[in-house]
Amino acid sequence: MIRKLPCHLRGFAREVRAGATIELALGAVVLVLIAATCFDLYSRIKSDTAGARLASVMADYVSRDAEPDGDGLKTLGEFLYRNDLRVPANLVYAITAFQRPTGDPQGAVKVLWSDNSIRFGDETVTESLADGCTRFVDDDGTSGLPGEFDMAGGEVLIVVEVCARLTREGSLTGRFVSGDIYRLHAVPAREPTTPPSRPTYSQQAGVRSTSSTSGV
User: Model-level pTM?
Assistant: First the structure.
């Protein structure tokens, strides 16, 4: 059909078809980017909500036990990681016990202990996450707890921070949209006179799990 058209009309038709092809290609790219962004936003919201629950459950568990079992904490952390998070991600739990001096509500808060060794996913990634996950303990090991954490004299506060970074399976755009997940939960220890001790592990070397995230 196009061969019967005059030369200038055939040229115009080719230009129109080429322009339409370019517009279609650009439109397809835009649609793919929008779809990827929507997927990552959904993953971000889902993992952020789940991270809050992980921190809450872990903090409540630690606050009830004067001698928390590290292996039990790891088992609980892995269960929550696999069944509540449900987004392929690298994950770190940072658990810290703070205490204000007895009878001195204005006294400086001290760090009883801090543990960020319960990790799941790629070891290199979780090491990077752990470096910045414990936000309320200064480099010298002293408390950096801000004033909004109001504590009475003698009170012990358990703070659990959860840091996560979605894997390639969980985020199409990487950290560009989803970024790192950070959630925390703080709860007073049930028995401040016998505050929870630092968790002990039967096999310290096995604390950092490198289990695959593909089954999350």
Answer: 0.76
Q: What is the domain extent for residue 123?
A: 5-209
Confirm whether 214 is domain-assigned.
Answer: no
Number of domains in the chain: 1
Residue 100 in any domain: the answer is yes
Residue 116 falls within a domain, yes or no?
yes
Instruction: Tell whether 111 is covered by a domain.
Output: yes
User: Mind listing the pLDDT tens digit of every residue in the chain (216 residues)?
Assistant: 445 546 554 554 555 555 566 666 666 666 666 666 666 677 777 888 999 999 999 999 999 999 999 999 999 999 999 998 888 889 999 999 999 988 777 778 999 999 999 999 999 999 999 999 999 999 899 999 987 788 888 899 999 999 999 887 766 665 555 578 999 999 999 988 888 999 999 865 445 544 433 344
Burial class (CB in 10 A: 0-12, 13-18, 19+), 90: buried
